Amino acid sequence: LKKCPDPSPLLVGPLRVEFSTPVSLDTVRKENPGLQEGGRYKPHDCVALQKVALIIPFRLRDEHLKFWLYYLHPILQRQQLDYGVYVINQDGDNTFNRAKLMNIGIAEALKEYDYDCFVFSDVDIIPMDDRNTYKCFSQPRHLSVSMDKYGFKLPYYQYFGGVSSLSKEQIMKINGFPNNYWGWGGEDDDIFNRSENV
After folding, report:
1. pLDDT by residue (tens digit) across 74-86?
2. If 0-12 CB within 10 Å is exposed, 13-18 middle and 19+ buried, where does residue 173 land?
3. What whole-number distance in Å separates Cα of residue 36 and Cα of residue 15?
4. Which residue, 80, 81, 118, 135, is the most exposed by fewest CB within 10 angstroms?
5. Separation between Cα atoms, residue 90 and residue 97, nearest integer Å
6. Distance, CA of 10 to CA of 7 (rounded, Å)
7. Does a cis peptide bond (omega within 30 degrees of 0) precede residue 7?
């Protein structure tokens, strides 16, 4: 097979994203017949340019996760990615540690497949345009630079939260993510500072 084109000819541009009607996992399965067990997908008519692991740090957000899967699987398939989705759940009532979950996600994903790109996504962020490609670049990339909850602009210059992508090589250069941030915030700025030096 030949390599998939860049950009993908399957992209449609702006999308209608709404949350008024609940979504079930059965609906996600039915509407994505090409999905393999465990949330894996590979284009059947070309070879994807990157092997992408999508890591979702998660706890107690089941409805958000269903919407994420419902919207993202078709987008990622139109982007012609060879991808796998990894929902890394923090159980219990202890303070949330997003960065530690991201490190666990990297380790678990690499046990299954030789990914060369990692996209880290909050479970409540869905792109409104499928041309916002979930892939890696020559430098770490913040992919959610225009979010409706912030008036479609960054809350501050160093903001690296929401959705970001780093190659396997870039992750190794920054020595993974900081495990010492508990609760919300702080780890994004640390990751930004580490990424600036890649």
Report:
1. 999 999 999 999 9
2. middle
3. 25
4. 135
5. 8
6. 9
7. yes
